Amino acid sequence: MLREKQLKKLADIVGEDNFSAEKYMRKLYSHDVGALPGIVNDILKAEVDAVVQPTSSEVVSNLIKYCLENKIPIVPRGHATSGYGGALPTHGGIAVEMTRMNEIYNLDLENMTVEVGAGIIWGALLEALEDHGVTIRAYPSSAPSSTVGGWVAAGGSGIGSTKYGGIKDQVVDLEVVLPTGQIIRTSNPPPDLIEKISKDDYEFFPNASTYVWAIDDFGLDDVDLTPYFVDSNGSLGIITKVVLRIIPLQEFRPFVASFENREQMFWAMQDIMKRTKPFYLHFITDGFNEMLTEVNMPTHSKHPWLILCVYEGSSESISQEERIFREIVSKNYGVIEPDEVGEHEWEERFYPMRIKRLGPSLAPSEVYVPLENMLSFLERAEKHFKGERFAVEGAVNNLGEVAVLAWFLDDERRTIPFLMGWYRSLDFIDIGIKENGRAYSIGMWNVSHSLNFYGKKRYANMARLKKSTDPKMIVNPNKVFSGPLQLSIRMSLLILAVAAVAVPIGLWIAGLYVGDLIAAYVPWLIMDNPLSVLIAFAIGIFLGVAVNELVNIVPITFVLTIGRPFLRLGRKIFH
Amino acid sequence: MAVRVITVGSQQFENLRKAALDIEPLICARCGFCTFVCPAYLDTLWDSQSPRGKLYQLRELIKKKQPIPADFAERIFRCTLCGACQEICQTKIPLLHFWQIIRQEVNLAGHWPEIVHFLDKNIQQSQNIMDLDQEDRTIWADMVDDIVEGHIGKAAATAYFVGCNISFKGSLASIAENTVKLFNHLDIDFTILGEKEFCCGNPYFVAGEWDKAREIAKHHLEELKRLGVKRVVFNCPGCHRAFNEEYSHLLGEESTKDFEFIPFSQFVAMNLRDGRLKFTKEYSHVVTWHDPCELGRHQNIYDYSREVLAAIPGLELREMKHTRNKSDCCGGGGLLKGTNPTMSVRISARRLESAEKTGAEFLLSECPSCMMSFFDGIEYKHSKIQFKDLSEIVAEALDL
Question: Does A81 touch chain B (CB under 8 A)?
Answer without folding.
Answer: yes
